[in-house]
Amino acid sequence: MTEAPVVAEVAAASQAPVEAAPVEVPWRHRHLLDLDVLTWPDIERVLVTADAMTEVLARPIAKVPALRGISVTILFYEASTRTRVSFEVAAKNLSADVVNIAAASSSVTKGESLVDTVRTIEALGARMLVMRHDRSGAPYLAAEVFGGSVLNGGDGWHAHPTQGLLDLYTMRAHLPGGSVAGRKVVILGDILHSRVARSNVWSLTAAGADLWLCGPSTLLRGFEAWAARGAAAGRRFQVTSDVDAALRDADVVMALRIQRERMTGGLLPSLREYAARYGLTRERLALARPEAIVMHPGPMNEGVEIAPDVATDPRSVITDQVTNGVAIRMALLYLLAGTLPGRHEPGGAAGR
Amino acid sequence: MTGRRIMTADEIRRAVVRVSHEIVEKHAGTDGLVLVGIQRRGVPLARRLAAAIREHEGAAIPVGALDITFYRDDLSLVAQQPVVKGTDIPFPIDGRTIVLVDDVLYTGRTIRAAMDALVDFGRPEAIRLAVLVDRGHRELPIRADHVGKNVPTSREEIVRVSVEEIDGEDAVTIERVEASVAEPVA
Lengths: 352, 186
Description:
Number of strands of chain A: 9
CATH architecture of chain B: 3-Layer(aba) Sandwich
Strand order of the largest sheet of chain A: 7-6-5-8-9
Structural class of chain B: alpha/beta
Oligomer: heterodimer
Strand order of the largest sheet of chain B: 3-2-4-5-6
Number of helices of chain B: 4
CATH architecture of the largest domain in chain A: 3-Layer(aba) Sandwich
Strand content of chain B: 25-35%
């Protein structure tokens, strides 16, 4: 296969949104399954709310009573540390009641179907369901039967919407001017298996970034077609296997984990060859702007997609991504809780 | 603007100056005194009180902003989550006397929420309350220490405070609403 052609030419900042004061649009989404349905004002609302949550996290007592009495169930069918704990901390910081279910130790092992599990969780009082599943689309099925809100904590290769938002939030916090519009953002690595890359495409194109997806052509399959379609819809990004071209003058470089557990035969010659050709090393990073920031959604394979000294470089904001993840998830839990059924009782107007 | 004007810009200015003197008098000075405005219109009012105190006492009083959204007792009742305006209390409150500042005192629920929020920041020596307008109809055992103007109202009326910094003019108006129209979220 030849080098992947650059399909979508980016007119820098052509989609640049007006990053004005918080837009007071009503929040209408009961579930968060992917970012494709969020408008730019929706995303702004999440980011502004996350700012308030960041302030809460800095308090001596980082806990507010906003979700008191609301039961949040966290159901993970796939291994996870940071996302599961991040959701749990976020829900607890909002005073929600949190129930954790690891599918490996639940009735799922006895053959219970996803739909039955979701119905059981609802019957036990859950109003919000945070879910991770190895099958793409599973949270959509859960949302069909669940009476409350479903938050997708990652489904197969498909979507990881809270990661897409926390990455955007982290970039805005570190880029001069607090905007990613027109900034060159490179996502480097195993794009094919990455729900993080897919969700970042939605959030970063909405924000007007000059987005480049880079990796071996075997790990970019399908993205050229998406870039061509996306350009027609005003969602512009580029796809390339030329790592030097991608990194040159980049403002943000995000390395993605090589997902060994999802690799099925022949996509990569070897991890060593991948590291040599696409690993984010200090030498490659020198192509980017001097003040460029380095990101990674974790967990990292140090020495494969990212060199250990790059991961700990002062320009690395990887631990900020983790902290910001809590603020973003608090913001989403808060916003979605506002759409839970049974809230629209009369006489609810606020007293002063 | 519709509605009957019950305070003019001059009257608001005089009320702020009077309340600023009352605050200092009650506290017997300015040591350990801080002002915290409740979002949104309490914040510019707190800044004006601090400016007035600086003018007549020569002391700079710290001013913070408090958003009480996450502490509201009606979050499960309102149809939409309110937009959070942000909290900024960039000073320790332990051992200080906090004067909470808001535009209108009505049911007292906002002040209850504000006190819950403040104690998460530390243990103040005392919390006092200054408001521009007290319109009555308390639902909680809360009273203001300093009041710009007491205004008898009915529950069917809305008291609107406009401030230059947010609304482009200083005014307090009162208007009657149909019972079916819910009061907008404060």
